[in-house]
Amino acid sequence: MPRCSVCKLNRTRPCGPQASNDNQTGIIVACDDELLRPPHFARMAVACNNLGFSRYAFVEELAGALYSNTEPLLWPEGDIYTLNDTAIDRAFNGDLSFRWLSDFFRVRHDPVRRPQRSLTPRLRLVDTYFLIKRPNIARHFYR
Questions:
Q1: pLDDT at 94
Q2: Chain centroid to CA 30
Q3: What is residue 93's predicted lDDT score, i.e. its pLDDT?
Q4: Confidence band of 20 (pLDDT split at 50, 70, 90)
Q5: Confidence band (pLDDT; 50, 70, 90) for 109?
Q6: What CA dihedral angle connects 40, 41, 42 and 47, to 10 degrees?
Q7: In the chain, what percentage of residues exceed pLDDT 70?
Q8: pTM, rounded to two decimals
Q9: Closest Cα to residue 42, out of 125, 142, 134?
Q10: What gap in Å lies between CA 63 and CA 87, rounded to an integer?
């Protein structure tokens, strides 16, 4: 049975995203399908809520983590994932009140349905924040 590179336990499926190109090292961002899995979405929302940040404080924490990160971010295929200065504004469609975060923080363990595909950029930023700043929490999203 293969050993997971995230939790170091024997698993048939790894706990987190894995790069298909083993020559690249860095933080592997999740693919769209993984981000839209209801359990992944719900665990991420509960983890955000448990941090205790207001929506504005969370966005500041998110921006600080994403833009100060020095480790390369990679797509699961091994290509470089780049974040530019407007990534957060674009993901939230210019909504500087970040009201979506208030609803996201209220999600509980098992959402009834799959999140909308249009949320993928937001979810990727939040997921990447956890992969950078709190990888021990992020590994639970992928179970």
A1: 79
A2: 7
A3: 86
A4: very low
A5: low
A6: 90
A7: 80
A8: 0.80
A9: 142
A10: 9
Query: Cα separation of 65 and 110, whole Å?
Result: 27
CA distance 113 to 1: 32
What pLDDT band is residue 23 in, cutting at 50, 70 and 90? low
Domain boundaries, the chain: 31-71+82-142
Amino acid at 56: Y
Nearest to 116 by CA among 21, 41, 54, 25: 41
Backbone φ/ψ region at 2: left (φ over 0), alpha (ψ -120 to 50), beta: beta
- Residue 134: its pLDDT value, please? 95
In this structure, what token pair is assigned to residue 135?
A: 């990888």
How far CA 33 is from CA of 41, 58, 85, 95, 123, in Å, comes to 11, 24, 25, 25, 11
Cα gap 1→90, rounded to integer Å: 42
Sign of the torsion angle spanned by Cα atoms 23, 28, 32, 37: positive
**Helix crossing, 120-133 with 38-51: angle to 10°?**
60
| CA distance linking residue 66 with residue 63, whole number of Å | 5
User: Average of pLDDT values for 51-75?
Assistant: 94
